[in-house]
Amino acid sequence: MPPACILAVVTATLGLSFGVVFAGSTSQKLEAKPTQILQGDIAELRVSGTGLISVEGRIGKETIRFYPAGREIYSALIGVDLQAKPGLTKILLRATTRNGGHREGQITLNIKPKKFQEESFSVPQEFDQFSPDVLERIRLDQERFARAFTTSVSERLWEAQFIRPAQADISSPFGYRRVINGTPRAPHTGVDLRVPTGTEVLASNRGRIVLVGDFFFSGNSVVIDHGGSLHTMYFHLSEIKVVEGAEVHKGEVIGLSGMTGRVSGPHLHWAARLNGARIDPFELIKKLGGASPGDLHPIVE
Ligand SMILES: [Zn+2]
Q1: Which of 51, 60, 202, 253 could cross-link with 98 by S-S, CB 3.0 to 4.6 Å?
Q2: Which pTM was predicted?
């Protein structure tokens, strides 16, 4: 059976990182040209301006946290959900200056569709239906995950770069779509790593454990909060070696791989969420490796 994937979204490309410059003291806006980002990717957003002491961003209802990244430069990571609607979307920015003033700006993102692998197959109906009891359990599981994702410290706990939680090949890629008995299913919101049962699973970066439990789809699972609404997840473990509330460092063993939950064989499902967006966890390795920072584009003069 397909492993359950409960998570998802947001994109940007480092190297393709982009940003804005707050300058002057008036509020007239100059908008940078739309920045392209693929579904499931991440990007770094950089904002600078004379006298800035803090910056905050919003996409829809999500607040984007910015962190100091140099003299009067602030950066944020944004992600695009793997099922985000393609098209233009705005990030609203509000900066506070040393003299207590505020400046506003915005960046337009152009979300581009990504081509994900797809496969269709049929299974007997009885394998594909859940009893009311199971449906209720799934609902409660989803509530616990949703609560865990709202738990995030504002402090950025991670340091570049993220590491692969196990040295293994990918057996099922991010975003993979299955059509079962003619009905499209939820896309694969993580990456499956081909590891035998009992392999050590490592924290991909520093953080705090915000969820540990045994769930219907994901089996024995661990969720780490890396701060600033960035979480990583580790599913189908045979053994969990951490408790909720514990601090973990990058590379610390958090459990052993296995095949718990609704799976057909041993593997590690690794997933990430950034500001609620289900993103490809490998983006955290590929794009946070200290690549050269992106340009700062003027947006307010
Ligand atoms: Zn998976």
Answers
A1: 51
A2: 0.84
Q: How far is the CA of 157 from the centre of ligand 1 (A)?
A: 25
Q: How many whole angstroms from 190 Cα to the centroid of ligand 1?
A: 5
Is the pLDDT assigned to residue 85 strictly greater than 70? yes
Q: Output the CA 298–ligand 1 centroid distance in Å.
A: 41
**DSSP characters over 201-253:** EE-SSSEEEEEEEEETTTEEEEEEE-STTEEEEEEEESEE---TT-EE-TT-E
Convert the pLDDT of each residue in 49-73 to its tens digit: 888 888 999 988 888 889 988 888 8
Q: How far is the CA of 3 from the centre of ligand 1 (A)?
A: 5
For domain 118-286, which CATH number applies: 2.40.37.20, 2.70.70.10, 3.40.50.2000, 3.50.50.60?
2.70.70.10
Sequence ranges of the domains in the chain: 6-114, 118-286
How many Å lie between the centroid of ligand 1 and the Cα of residue 191?
5
How far is 93 from 107, CA to CA, in rounded Å?
A: 8
